[in-house]
Specification:
Elements: E1 2-6, H1 18-35, E2 42-47, E3 62-66, H2 73-84, E4 91-94, E5 107-111, H3 115-118, H4 125-141, E6 144-147, H5 150-160, E7 167-169, E8 199-204, H6 213-226, E9 234-239, H7 247-255, E10 262-264, H8 273-279, E11 282-285, H9 294-301, E12 306-309, H10 314-318, E13 322-325, H11 330-343, H12 347-360, H13 365-380
Helix pairs in contact: 1-13, 6-7, 6-11, 9-12
Length: about 375
Amino acid sequence: MIIAIDGYEANVGSRVGIGRYAYEILVSLYVLLSHDNAHRVEVRVYVPTRPRTDMPKETTWWHYYVRGPQKLWTFVGLPLALKKDKPEAQVVFSPTHYIPRFTRIPRVMAVMDLSYLYFPELFRKRDLYQLTNWTKYGLAHASAVCTISQFSKNDIIKRYGIGKEKVFVTFPGFSMQKTTTGTPIKQENSLEQYKIAKHFILSVGTLQPRKNYVRLIEAFSKFLQKNKQKFGEVQLVIIGKKGWLYEQILSAPSKFGVVDKVKFLDFVPDSDLPSFYRQALCFALPSLYEGFGLPVLEAMAYKCPVVISNVSSLPEIADSAGIYVVPTDVDSIANGLLSAVRQRNLIQGKTRIQRGLVRVKQFTWEKAAKQTLDILTKAGAKDI
């Protein structure tokens, strides 16, 4: 069977969100097929630019097809390439919200979440138009849909009227510090270069309104007023690239009187993230909406207490390992931070950390790859 994969999002530099998902799925499929290719699968990864050096290496069964144009990739470049390259692929997988147009090849797509339907005011007009219209088209024409939580599956079925037999949950996994061959890299990096305080609360995610950073910063200012621990100076460290509508986030520390206590670090390489998780007093993600919340999984894997929203998919991910807060209530968030810091070394905190370690083991990219390959195989055989 020939499987075509849209590698556009996976083949970028700083991978976050859907780019991270696309890359991890590609790598995990590669590792899976390297160990067992009983299905005699040939994979064609289509990209508009040359594959980056950290993409899986080409083999006799894994090939990169560099096609253009990059502009209007989903409408022009990818569909033309799929039609031109012979023999035709039996199925095409788009690990994004958008499927290629103008092709009769069975298509499988991935949808992270439907946050744009609930918070349209938090998206730029162009992004909102694409997400609303292109996702609707994709869901109407895809043979199968992969999504990243039961919460998102239920949402897709409810909002788009898709049959439940067509939507599959393929949970993301924890794989930080793995190479494209699946080999773990263990190292502890110094954080001196980042010039942060010895004691800090951590948050990871793109700077955008949905992440609820403004309320988190206000809650952190209240935490500082209430905290009577022996730690001395405590900072809030926020790791994440600028997304959209981030101006209020960047001005929030000044507004709430903590301008010297909040550190924005933009993008941080995966090799350094484990050290942040290990050394943080706690991790906070009081998002208004999350399709999954991969940083929560990462924090739990590195024994970092997690303070998270009690809405969307987050309770599904952390289960009993999380400290839950009401994302629209600043006092609730502040109290969650206090609980995490005060209980970190007490039996309550240690119990949550152990629960987190157990919980993480249930989410692996290997499992996601196996499920995805099964879905693609069935879609290619028109068994879905």
